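sanity check this:
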Amino acid sequence: MLLAIWRPRLRGRTRAELGLAALFGAVLAGMNLSFYHAIERIPLGVGVTIEFVGPLTVAVLGSRRRLDLLWVVLALGGILALLHGDTHSLNRLGVALALVAGALWGFYIVINARLGRAFADGSGLALAMCVATVLALPVGVAEAGARLISPHVLLLGAAVGMLSSAIPYSLELEALRRISTGVFGVLMSLEPAMAALAGFVVIGQSLGARELLGIGLVVVASFGASLATRAGSARRASERALTESQ
């Protein structure tokens, strides 16, 4: 789908730009493979919470003011509140894979921001997805074999590919053109909160007081980070205008 939309061309691109797209593709492949193998061994909510260490680290490193750290702390508190169930008997390999996925998620944010500056459109993402496909396909073939070509699996895989990769990655690429990686890391805390809400709406999973508190903290953190970004952009714009007038 991304190839059909953007029709990326290799000709005219520098080696550095193509290398960046290839690196991003490798990160995408590693991030997805490690995450899906993690949630095969540990609960989904636990896996997402552990994986969030990546965006949270980016948010901390991207903080420039004490107020920024407040949003990070609120987001962390919300994520911990959403973490439920017995965590003492977790599969160690699953936890390790979730941590790997989280580390790669952090790299994903940073490299995605650079990719957005190197490519004016979504062609860089399309190239990266091709690299990710080449790297991930052998693992799928080794684990699933001929089952990969069954109509049911192909349709389900296409739906998951669009909803979990093509659409969100495209939106995140555009978001990182407009906001800092630190703010983006805080906003990513909405993901487990929305997962909890989706579980309640779609499959009837109950939400207790702790889960509702966690969602509330995440929403406040994301809202605060967004307002801080808007205020910072307005302040920088006014400073530029003042400098130009002088």
About this structure: The chain has eleven helices and no strands. Residues 78 and 217 are 5 Å apart (CA to CA). The mean pLDDT is 82.
